[in-house]
Amino acid sequence: MTVQSAAPGPAGLDAPAVRAVLNRLYSQAERDDKEVMERAHADAARLAAPPTPAEASALCADALLPVDPHTGRLLYTLVRMLRPRLVVEFGTSFGTSAVQIAAGLRENGRGRLVTTELDGSKVRRARANLDEAGLADLVDVREGDALELLRAFDAPVDLVLLDGWKELYLPVLEVLEPVLAPGAVIVSDNLSMLPAAYLERIRDRDRGYVSLDLPLGDGIELTTWTGAAGAADARPGNA
Fold first, then answer.
1. Whole-angstrom distance, CA of residue 149 vs CA of residue 89
2. How much is the average pLDDT of 147-170?
3. Strands 112-117 and 86-90
4. What is the pLDDT of residues 6-19, one digit of tens each?
5. 87: which strand partners?
6. pLDDT at 223
7. Alpha helices in 60-181 (DSSP H)
8. Which residues pair with 209 in a beta bridge?
9. CA-to-CA distance for 141 and 122, rounded, in angstroms?
10. Is residue 101 within 8 Å of 161, Cβ to Cβ?
11. For 125-141, how does the pLDDT look when each residue is reduced to its tens digit (9 = 90+)?
12. Which architecture does CATH list for 69-229?
């Protein structure tokens, strides 16, 4: 008598625990984020100067601000394609994109995600969401200043998601650039809000980047680090 093994259940983004968490987070964002952000903008307008990253983080503490669902599926697909050993995210928020990335890592059977978030309440919520999705063991959620938290890695970085304070995209990129693996992919979210200096850098072939914009959500910039000869010589501080 032949015993047939049960067919494997849904995996990746369709795994029941993952899908339940993502559905809940996107539903909550659709319901609440507009009101939360309107209140945050009103509070920011009353400040004497433009808010610092820490002040902006506090103002937006209750906003989920997830990546667009199509961007999330792109991230998952990139993880499955690239099979990265190390993924870095700047801007965890409630962990929506971390769940999408980690779902790909789980299916690959290898890799880890390091993600940073300034707001402590969001760190706690992100960790709880990752735990609920069954993916917490794949993700290191670090609380604090990304420019300090991302300074040292024991392995090359294969995939980067930038989805935090837009004025910090360029400083974060400069911190990570020395450890980018040749062929590393960088996804920069919220294209319409990105500073000109960052876009000039990320689109500069002479600095080792090849880049294009994609109409997903509020727009993203999809970039690869070529590791081109001479790129290091073009970095600030090198003569």
1. 11
2. 93
3. parallel
4. 556 788 999 999 99
5. 113, 159
6. 98
7. 69-82, 96-108, 120-132, 146-149, 169-176
8. 225
9. 10
10. yes
11. 999 999 999 999 999 99
12. 3-Layer(aba) Sandwich (3.40)
